[in-house]
Amino acid sequence: MTNVDVTAVELRRMIRASQACESDLNDHSYTCVAITAATPKTKESLGKFCRALKAHDWASLIKFDDLDLLL
Predict the structure, then answer these.
(1) Angle CA 65–60–21, to nearest 5
(2) pTM for the complete prediction?
(3) Domain limits at 2?
């Protein structure tokens, strides 16, 4: 099973149905828009990430690339 397959399985398990059309996720697509880490070291960045996510600020979210802070 590829990482994409595992992600799809987990999304179906966690979400169950589309919030837009209320049907199952079998014929839906998804994409990874942003990723960040939650550690004491990234607390400030995580706050910015969460605010952008709540605001649906996709342009800001797509720029998140702070996983190198974990090194």
Answers:
(1) 105
(2) 0.56
(3) 1-29
Per-residue model confidence as pLDDT tens digits over 33-66: 788 878 888 888 889 989 998 998 989 988 887 6
User: Do residue 25 and residue 35 come from a single domain?
Assistant: no
- Using CB atoms within 10 A of its CB, is residue 49 exposed (0-12), middle (13-18) or buried (19+)? buried
Q: Answer whether 34's CB lies under 8 Å from 65's CB.
A: no
**Can you give the pLDDT at residue 1?**
67
**Same-domain pairing of 6 and 36:** no
CA dihedral 46, 22, 2, 36 (to 10 degrees): 0
Write out pLDDT tens, residues 20-37. Answer: 888 887 777 777 778 887
Tokens representing 47 are 């706050």
Q: Are residues 8 and 38 in the same domain?
A: no
